[in-house]
Structure formats: structure tokens, C-alpha cells
Design goal:
Elements lengths: L1 H28 L3 H16 L3 H13 L1 H14 L2
Length: 81
Amino acid sequence: MNNIAKGANVLGRAVGVTGAAIAVYDAFENPTTANIIKASANVGLLFVRMNPVTGVILGISDLSGFSDFIYNGVGNIIDNY
């Protein structure tokens, strides 16, 4: 069981770092409010994550497009305020 926990920890951190790097790249290439918020949130979460499962969940939400939906919604609210 210990090996599974270690594997989940490594996977969670790898997915988190990869997601943050992609978000920062997207923010530089297309500096919209939503992309800047997403990059800031992902980089901030790298330092806050306590549970490796969080990284996997955030990675799945990135792959499925759910996080883009949320960040675009927040970005639109800020842009139109």
C-alpha cells in the first residue's frame, strides 16, 4: 500500500507542475484575464497542495475542459464588470 501512496504522490505533483507550466505558457501566448487567473491559481496551488489526489483531480479538470469553463466564466465577469 505504501508504494501506491508514493506513486500517487509523484503522479499528483507531476500533473500539478505540468498543468501550471501549461497555464503559464498559455497566459504568455494569449494574455486574457481568464488565462492569467488560471496561471496564477495553478502556480499558487503548487505551494498549497497537501494531498496528492488534489493534483490528479485538477489535472483531470484541466484535461476535461472544466477548469477552462470556470476560469473563462470568472474572466468574463471581471472583464464585463
